[in-house]
Design brief:
This protein is mostly helical. It has two domains: 2-90, no CATH class; 105-225, no CATH class. Helices cover 59% and strands 0% of the residues. The protein is built from eleven helices and no strands. The two termini are 31 Å apart.
Length: 233
């Protein structure tokens, strides 16, 4: 924290506060993403099976937490204006985590299915039921984002209508790329939620996804969408 405040003060005279916030947030997020890679690639070779299983379980938990911190760092703004930490941090008080309201998958899916121009017809979808994809993606919605999330999703879809229509046309069911068995997620209503999280919480989304699902589906969707942060390697 002291180093961050020193950077804010050093840049204050030459760089607008908004740009300073952006630079510091990106540096911190990048450092955390690098830490995630290092953690994820750590191993406990040459030890007994029980120790290795415990080691790997601990790594997954820590790596997920690091990805959450990276997303929070990338989104954090407003520190440059005051050059001071928040009152809670000054007093040494612990941060309070708010559980947030429940987010029902069926309600989110119903909202996504209303955008017929962004999803394939039911008979053309690769998965009649994409519940597994939706559940994993919703686990990347942070507690403080749950209230009003459906309205957030609707605004996102309307904002990116042209891109979503183009992605469905070029990579959706019946397209040439899809004929090779790839891009199976495109055309699913669940994909509207996946793309929104890909833009809003990319590190957390991938961390949650890697624990439950084949990453090739997410990699293909990242390629077709072309997000601001591409995490597939």
């Amino acid at each position: 924290m002291n180093a961050r405040l020193e950077v804010f003060r050093a840049l204050a005279a030459r760089v607008p506060a908004g740009r300073t916030d952006n630079l510091v947030a990106r540096l911190k997020a990048g450092a955390l993403a690098g830490a995630h890679t290092w953690i994820a690639e750590s191993s406990a070779d040459g030890v007994e099976k029980r120790f290795e299983d415990g080691w790997n379980a601990g790594l997954r938990t820590i790596a997920t937490g690091v990805l959450r911190l990276a997303d929070q760092a990338a989104a954090r703004r407003g520190r440059a204006a005051t050059h001071q930490p928040s009152p809670a941090r000054q007093s040494g008080a612990p941060a309070v985590t708010v559980a947030g309201p429940a987010l029902e998958a069926k309600d989110v899916l119903a909202a996504a299915e209303r955008y017929s121009w962004a999803v394939a017809a039911p008979g053309m979808r690769h998965w009649p039921d994409g519940g597994d994809f939706l559940n994993v993606t919703l686990s990347a919605v942070r507690p403080e984002e749950r209230e009003g999330y459906i309205q957030r999703l609707e605004a996102f879809v309307e904002q990116h209508r042209i891109c979503l229509e183009e992605m469905l046309r070029t990579h959706g069911p019946g397209s040439r790329p899809a004929s090779h068995g790839r891009y199976a997620l495109i055309g699913q209503p669940e994909t509207l939620v996946i793309v929104e999280r890909m833009e809003s919480a990319p590190f957390l989304l991938r961390g949650q996804w890697e624990k439950e699902l084949e990453t090739v589906f997410l990699d293909d969707l990242e390629f077709a969408w072309g997000p601001r942060i591409r995490l597939s390697r």
